[in-house]
């Protein structure tokens, strides 16, 4: 079992949290760090602890996205389905489920009417009322444009296909299996009040805590640091009871291009992406009147951090959570697992150098029959490859992502070449014995 964080690391985390709370003038602030599947540190400033509930705003969207992807994995829908196939009453019906998840549907950022986070959800009682008369501001699929109503529609989609309210599906499918007893659409008995802090005086104004009605799947949940550390662990390590590991990986992949004003940001399927301090982070932030929240995990370092506070503005909480991840990763670098022989001996014949034309690459055989294609020189395209039941491999990233690798043999069973999405790899540069597209000059090299 991994050891707890070192005293110096814990002090650095506490110092960063205390500085943020004081400089941001947040009434209370609580934070926690997870590593190797366990909570390793938590602390609070003000009258708080890791079991006090705060509203978490748009971190709610990560839960809604998992509910939708569970339906996809069960065959109840496809990500390419037009939303109108399942919710015919909404307009425009031709945007896809995937576009809603990735905020590329081109829908408005907010529902019509008064500020929805400070007014009763009864003002928007049904799904059509979340969009109003002019819901489209961009062509679908062309750019990232954050849309809160889009996640209201996704929550409605869950309700329609499950036949139960969104929060009931959430409780049964995610919260109860993960032991997140203090998370829900209503505040538990121990919860923080939401406040606005005057910009030029140290005084407070209470913020309303409304029920958002059909907009709840976009930002209504309450949770605690302790519960969100469980959620951060899920986002790091997965849990097959909740979601297949391959689907969790799919959530993390960029599905929308970053905006020019935020080149280090991005979005997957219900998951925000961030490049910070040389690390690739995934997670989500949250902001509703009276509350700010942030959750980031770094799979490469196996570290996650959660920060919650009860103020409307004034704290760069997303940066703070990312900095907590960085403090742990830099002070206590992840110790690699012990290397053990794990490759299948029957695949060794594929290992070693190959050539696409004159460009040398290396094919490495990994555990679980996985392969890895890397450059030996220059800028050859690299990818990891997942084995398939039919004896092929599917490329997982880079230029080749989604393409199939086939091992081609001659009549005697010897490997002649590899075919990766029509790209021919041979054991020698432009091997004349292989089916090189365009052929090989019969006079050979000179």
Automatic annotation (TrEMBL):
Query: What are the protein's UniProt keywords?
Result: Hydrolase
Q: Does the keyword Mitochondrion apply?
A: no
Beta-lactamase-related domain location? 19-323
Which part of the chain is the DUF7586 domain?
Answer: 344-427
Coiled coil region boundaries: none
Q: Which Pfam families match?
A: Beta-lactamase, DUF7586
Q: Which GO terms describe its molecular function?
A: hydrolase activity
Q: Which InterPro entries match?
A: AmpC-like (IPR050491), Beta-lactam-related (IPR001466), Beta-lactam/transpept-like (IPR012338), DUF7586 (IPR056008)
* PANTHER family reported in the protein's UniProt record: D-ALANYL-D-ALANINE CARBOXYPEPTIDASE (PTHR46825:SF7), D-ALANYL-D-ALANINE-CARBOXYPEPTIDASE/ENDOPEPTIDASE AMPH (PTHR46825)
Instruction: Report what the protein is called.
Output: Serine hydrolase
